[in-house]
Amino acid sequence: MHCPFCRHPDSRVIDSRTSDDGLSIRRRRQCPQCGGRFSTIETASLNVIKRSGVVEPFSREKVMSGVRKACQGRPVTEGDLALLAQAVEEAVRQTGASQVDTNEIGLAILGPLRELDEVAYLRFASVYQAFESLEDFESSIAALRADHASRPAPRAD
Predict the structure, then answer these.
(1) Which domain holds residue 21?
(2) Cα separations in angstroms, 106 against 29, 109, 124, 151
(3) Domain membership flag for residue 123
(4) For a disulfide at 64, which of 49, 81, 131, 139, Cβ 3.0-4.6 Å?
(5) Domain for residue 29, yes or no?
């Protein structure tokens, strides 16, 4: 790590702390040349392999924009989308892989989106899973209904 003050090519780590979200490490460093102190934030890189074979860095914003289309006209806020994108990133990072394909990201989106808004989930799933007929929609709706039937009824306290 080059010193931002004198460009010396080395620095010493004085302190390391995990960020609040647990996805990065903040390191306090000191330059042995000029004595200047500075902070760095380190994250593990996560790359996405697109269908075309192109590799690009994971982007929460891309997850949000893809889901935003499915949520159009639904009672879903930008904050909800940000939390969903964070949950997707955490799920993908938990696999331990440094590169994931777009299919895995799509699968990671489906669960949280289903919990957030079932209509948006159906919209997203219909495109992502390439629904071709009414039967595809019917089977997905039947799975949602079965899931509702298996959940315990809310308690009236």
Answers:
(1) 10-41
(2) 39, 5, 9, 25
(3) yes
(4) 81
(5) yes
Q: Which residues contact 20 (CB under 8 A, 6 or more apart)?
A: none
Whether residues 61 and 28 share a domain: the answer is: no
Question: Would you say 58 and 47 are in contact if contact means Cβ atoms under 8 Å apart?
Answer: yes
For 66, residues 6+ apart whose C-beta sits below 8 A from its C-beta are 109, 124
Regarding whether 138 and 62 lie in a shared domain, the answer is yes
pLDDT digits (tens, 9 = 90+) for 18-64: 877 677 899 999 999 999 999 998 888 899 999 899 999 999 999 99
CA distances to 10, 24, 57, 89, 144 from 119, rounded to whole Å, are 54, 34, 29, 22, 10
The model's pTM is 0.69
Query: What is the per-residue pLDDT across 69-106, written as a single tens digit (0 to 9) for each?
Result: 999 999 999 999 999 999 999 999 888 888 999 989 99
**Are residues 143 and 80 part of one domain?**
yes
